[in-house]
Amino acid sequence: MTQSFESRALLRDVTLRDGLQLTGKMLPTARKLEIARRLLELGVPALEIGSMARPDLVPPMANTVEVISELTPEELEHCWVWVATPRHVEKAAAAGARHFQYCFSASDSHNQANIGRSTEDSLAAMPAAIELAQDVGGSIQLCIATSFTCPFEGRVPEQRVIDIANDPRAHGAVDVVVCDTLGQAVPAEVYSLVSRVRLETPQRGIVFHGHDTWGLGVANSLAAVAAGAMTIDGALGGLGGCPFAPGASGNTASEDLLFATRPDWLNPTTFGSLVELSEKTLAELGEANRSKAAQGARSNASAFEWVIGGGR
């Protein structure tokens, strides 16, 4: 794959939602706003800024409404909010959100653990969520968690995901988000499923959300792009994981995805600034940095322009 081919992929940074879910510390609203604005300033085209999940179940998301309400309409044009019910859409929209990621699992067991209802119940409620998003001039994504494997049921058949994506109740979604929630997929599986979603379901954008549990986050993301995904999710330093999915570890690192895809807005200077933002954020949270590219940026290979301070 050439650089120009890979550069088609847009990064959505999910640090402020999926990245924070498993952390033991909650970032104050002001700090979340600072991170969001710095990411946008550096050129990151899209962000996931929070979740409407119950704060007693996912405490780091407790101030999501405050974050939404403090961002400008222009900033919110780049921001997505995780929702799982029509009521979630209503509350987020009232605060100013206009882009919603309506998420449920392909496997019933994980959906019960994560959202407290069956997959069918989540799908049945989606038309109401779509209508609420459209009423405020917004957009909504169909996000299918556990698209490859489930921590309770094991392998998820491809056809299960295709059937959900083809369900008429989801046809108002602008994108389909295919999620490797556990990070257990391999590139051939990602390419196969994303290709089928592109070819066999209504035409929409495709987002790939991958985790790096088995070290294939970047490879899987590039396979998704090759199959037709236009957006790939990542989190600073590989932060994150699902609190309701045993065995799930951090997201694919945003730094690794950016270093691999080299979008037009990225250069060694902006990359170095992202690494520094990541390091500061992870230090505040007491979390390890899992990004290989960030580690490379701190190497002593000073003749390489992507090393912080190198060649500049």
Structural write-up:
The protein is an alpha/beta fold and about 300 residues long. It has a single domain, classed as Alpha-Beta Barrel (TIM Barrel), CATH 3.20.20. It is built from 14 helices and 10 strands. The strands form 2 sheets. An 8-stranded parallel beta barrel has the order 1-2-3-4-5-8-9-10, surrounded by 9 helices. A two-stranded antiparallel sheet has the order 6-7. Strand 9, helix 11 and strand 10 form a beta-alpha-beta unit. Helix 3 crosses helix 4, helix 3 packs antiparallel against helix 13 and helix 9 packs parallel to helix 10. The longest helix is centred in the C-terminal third of the chain and has 18 residues. The N terminus is likely disordered.
Layout of secondary structure:
Blueprint (H helix, E strand, L loop, with lengths): L2 H4 L3 E4 L1 H5 L9 H14 L3 E6 L12 H7 L2 H4 L2 E5 L2 H10 L3 E7 L2 H7 L4 H17 L3 E7 L3 E2 L3 E2 L2 H9 L8 E6 L6 H14 L4 E6 L6 H11 L3 E4 L19 H8 L6 H18 L6 H6 L15
Parallel strand pairs: 1-2, 1-10, 2-3, 3-4, 4-5, 5-8, 8-9, 9-10
Antiparallel strand pairs: 6-7
Helix pairs in contact: 3-4, 3-13, 6-8, 9-10, 10-11
